[in-house]
Amino acid sequence: MIRSIAETVCALAATSTRAGASPAAVQARQPDRARRLFLLFASIVAAVNLVVFALLISGDSLDATLLHRPFTVASAAMAVSLAAFVREYFQCGNPGFLRIVGAAWFVTLALAFGMAMDPDTAAAATAAKTGLSPRPWAVTFANLLTCMFLAELAWRCRRHDNPELRRHNRFLLPPFIAIQALAQAYVTSAGTSVTATLVAQTLPFTLLGIAFAPLLLRDGALPSGLFARWLPNPAVSSLAARPRIPQAVSSQPNRPEPDLPGSDAMFRRMVDGMPYGLLVVDRAGRVAYANLNASRLFGHGQDALTGQPVLSLVPTRHVAELREALEQACGPDAASPPAPREGIGLGANGAEIPLEFSIERLGEVEQGAVLMSVRDVTAQKQADQRLRREIAFLRQVIDVIPNQLYVRDGGGRFVLANQAIADLYGTTVDALIGRRDEDFKAHETEIESSLRTDRATLETLQEQVIDEEYVTDAAGRGHWMRTTKRPLVGRGDHENMVLGSSFEITPYKQTALELVRQREALARLSRVNMLGELSGSLVHELNQPLAAILANAQAAQKFLTEEIPDLEELKDILHDIVADDKRAGKVIEGLRALLKKGEIRKEWLDLNEVVHEVLRLMQSELLNAGVHVKLWLASSLPPVLGDRVHLQQVLINLIVNATEAMNQVPAARRRIVIDSDVSDNASVELRVSDCGPGIPADQFERVFEPFETTKPNGLGMGLAICRTIIAANRGHLWVAPNDGCGATFCFSLPISNSKVT
Amino acid sequence: MNTDPCRVFIVDDDPAVRKSLGRLLRSHGISSSAFASDREFLAGYDPAVPGCLLLDLSLGEASGLDLQSMLSTREYAPPIVFMSGCASIPESTLAMKSGALDFLLKPLDQGALLTVVREAFARDQARRARLAECARIRARMNRLTPREKDVMHSVLKGRLNKQTAAELGTTERTVKVHRARVMQKLGARTVVELLQLVAQAEMADAQGR
Questions:
Q1: pTM for the whole structure
Q2: How far is it, in rounded angstroms, from Cα B92 to Cα B82?
Q3: Is A580 within 8 Å of chain B by CB?
Q4: Cβ of A546 and B24 within 8 Å?
Q5: Which residues in chain B are contacts of A548 at CB distance < 8 A?
Q6: Residue B163: left if φ>0, alpha if ψ -120 to 50, beta else—which one?
Q7: Which residue, among A544, A557, A586, would best test binding to B if mutated, counting the most B CBs under 10 Å from its CB?
Q8: Is A558 on the interface with B (CB under 8 A)?
Q9: DSSP string for residues in B126-147
């Protein structure tokens, strides 16, 4: 019975070693001292078991004293491994189930152990040839715990990431548990032979020990267990979260230390818990002590590291450098605290590790010894590199952007600039940083306006949009820019800055100007064309005053031939001549205005006046066409802002169209009605109605499209140009059907007081 | 100087033109009256005053051609001289066909104006003289008895007294007496003179329309 307990403990010690060592194995990836001890003791237990087994199957009779010795040895080994095991679990913070069960088991086995140590009891038990010890409940309880442990182990191994362990588990654990249960049942029942009991208990444990022993050297985390999830304690994963110090355990296996402040264990634990790798290098240049982090960093075990020449921990090409650093640290002018240096370490697998290290003299503690603190900066280096790459990438991105992009501080100094703005300034990005506009440009107004908007942005902390900005580049060429300035509110000790982004609109502006020019040219062409149509009317307008002037002049000539010329009459004649001449001049002026290639000249206009002017020009035209014009003009119209010539052109166009639309209408009904009024207090509306055939409803918009014409010789541009002109004067032009016959063309222009320019 | 009884009636919608033309004519001793529109002219025109019409083709809302056609329905129409600043060929053709004396282009040439005005005056006076003669002849003719008129027509047809007597159912002697009386009343000494008188009267009748 006691042996079976010993075997159980052996097997479970192996298990617990695995469970306990796994976090360390994960971290350090090498068997540590604790695990090696476990292996040692477990092997002893297994060996003793084998011996016992051999004895059992070789002889019929058993000598209790013969068995007493191996049992004692096995029990001692078991006790040691058990202690280590329990400590392991207590130490590593393994969750509650194993801890509680382990504690209970320890107590139980201690009792059983005490029994086994008593030769009389053992002899009595053996002599009685029964499977029950004087304290059978303890053994039974131990066996029950064994079953639970095995079940837990089985559960854990089922999900273990080591395929070999899983395979073992599948083939060995179920039969083992079954045999164990059967053996217990058999042992519990009275009257069985001690031989059978021992066989039943020894065989499975031995098999199990052999099966699992190789796995103990393997790595791999143990998954969470079967029973563990019913307990409130943290899961197995918390193992990794809590630093574990196997060093302390394995070096002092028999003495579980209380972690008293100031104790050596406490100190070691502190040292191991430090985020730096610490190496104490003695006078001879060998590592006297290495903490856990140092061993992890270099990939050697702590023991392996101890005693190694420190210079072997760096690649050969850095040896001189390290030696110099060591010497310097021991020298009289060593900095305190020591300045961190950068270096390269050599890992156990030959890999180079970027390091940051500092060396400090430990003179007070030990003559000639130094403390080397080492930090793996691989991650930091990688982060640095990544950051540099990202910065380079972003730099590339902003340089590729065709818009000018820059950040300036309150003093107008460039903080950030992209290639586009550097090109504009005829310099490089680097040269621009920290400099100001006036370092590159001579255009004071440009500099001043740019600074002004900078200030406005900073003062209001609002985005400023400069729709059009004229900027002269380094080559003296002008650019039209649309610039947006946004405030960048500074954080911490950064002041507020301005982010400017400029977009070149020169091509758009040229296109827009070209468009205006072309439109004006087209409008002029159409006016010339229109004047051709009105030539009869114009000739009449010119001829009337000319006729009067001629007649007056000739009359004067005749009067002068008289003996006593009538001076009053002559004065009167001259007065009339002047008046008529002026009148003719006005006609010419009006004509020239219509023909002139002039700028758009906006002025305050009375639309009624424009109507009268146009009708005067068109009088004979209308007469010839037999068209009667009826005026219903508002008595007083508010002035509108517009170009007189353009509005005249539109009106002439509309009247000519109306006249032509009525070609086929009987002369008596050829009537055009022109009326004007104020609509909605916001605009002046003018309507030209005819009595022609009208326009089909689906053509209302088409008539305004270019090249749409119903006239045999028409260009189809008239109404299209009219609409453009009215739009340029901020108005609308549209057509509507009349109630009776024909169509009405209307246009509206905003009343001037809405916007004064 | 202003002895000519003829007047020029100027119809033009342009006051400057009216005034200057009137002045020009006055400087040449020709009196004139000015009217701004056709209506004004029709209201103020006295057909008894000899002269001519100087008519602008375009009169604001109306046309000079309308006035021409209106006047042609009247008992007496003065000679019409059209003037225009920008006349089209169809318009001028129409005006001439309708009996206009001339068609002048503005600005008017002084010489041409005076020539045409004088010609118009001459025509008007001639026509008026003819009409007066015609009226005189007609008055004489009105003094003839119906029988005498019949005899006259027969004579003008070149019939012999004997033939006339047979047609009228009377004697040759009676016809002779009637014929002598016709000659006496109309103041004609020979049959040829008689024929001239009657033809003149009929022609004037036709022209007066």
A1: 0.43
A2: 8
A3: yes
A4: no
A5: 14, 16-17, 19-21
A6: alpha
A7: A544
A8: yes
A9: HHHHHHHHHHHHHHHHHTS-HH
Residue type present at position A172 = L
Smallest Cβ–Cβ distance between B23 and the set A547, A552, A628 belongs to A552
How many Cβ contacts (< 8 angstroms) between chains A and B? 86
Specify the amino acid at residue A20: G
CA distances from A537 to A143, A610, B56 (A): 131, 17, 15
Window from A307-316, A509-518, B99-108 with minimum mean pLDDT: A509-518
pLDDT computed for residue A544 by the predictor: 85
**Main-chain dihedrals φ then ψ at residue A160, nearest 5 degrees:** -70, 145
* Residue A269, both tokens: 């634990």
Q: Is the pLDDT of residue A95 over 60?
A: no
- The residue-averaged pLDDT of A136-153 equals 60
Amino acid, single-letter form, for residue A509: K
Whole-angstrom distance, CA of residue A271 vs CA of residue A93: 20
Tokens of A162: 């080591």
Q: What is the pLDDT of residue A686?
A: 92
Beta bridge partners of A676: A686
Are B124 and B50 within 8 A, CB to CB? yes
Residue B45 DSSP symbol: -
DSSP states along A218-280: S--PPPP-TTGGGSSS--TTHHHHS---HHHHHHSTT-PPP--TTSHHHHHHHHHHSSSEEEE
Instruction: Summarize pLDDT for B117-170 with one digit per residue, the tens.
Output: 999 999 999 888 888 888 888 888 888 888 888 888 888 888 888 888 888 888
Which one has a higher pLDDT value, A331 or A114? A331
Number of H helices, E strands in chain A: 24, 17
Other CB atoms within 10 A of residue A491 CB: 7
Q: What is the pLDDT of residue B66?
A: 87
Strands A464-472 and A478-488: what pairing? antiparallel
Is the complex ipTM more than 0.90? no
DSSP state of A437: G
Flag whether pLDDT at A22 surpasses 50.
no
- Rg of the Cα atoms in chain A: 55
Which of A738, A654, A736, A744 has its CA nearest to residue A700? A736
Of A536, A566, A577, whose CA–CA distance to B17 is shortest? A577
pLDDT for the residue numbered B48: 86
pLDDT of residue A226: 46
pLDDT of residue A193: 52
- Residue B192 vs residue A332, higher pLDDT: B192
pLDDT digits (tens, 9 = 90+) for A48-69: 666 665 665 565 444 544 554 5
Identify the residue among A534, A540, A569, A586 best suited for mutation to test binding to B, counting B beta carbons within 10 A and taking the highest: A540
Please enumerate residues of B whose Cβ is less than 8 A from a Cβ of A.
14, 16-17, 19-21, 23-24, 26-28, 58, 60-61, 63, 83, 85-86, 88, 106-108, 110
Of B154, B158, B140, B149, nearest in space to B201 by CA: B140
A624: closest CA of chain B, how far (Å): 9
Contact (CB<8Å) B20/A546: no
- The DSSP annotation for A514-566 comes to HHHHHHHHHHHHHHHHHHHHTHHHHHHHHHHHHHHHHHHHHHHHHHHTSSS--
Q: Alpha-carbon distance B113 to A149, whole Å?
A: 145
Q: What is the mean pLDDT of chain B?
A: 86
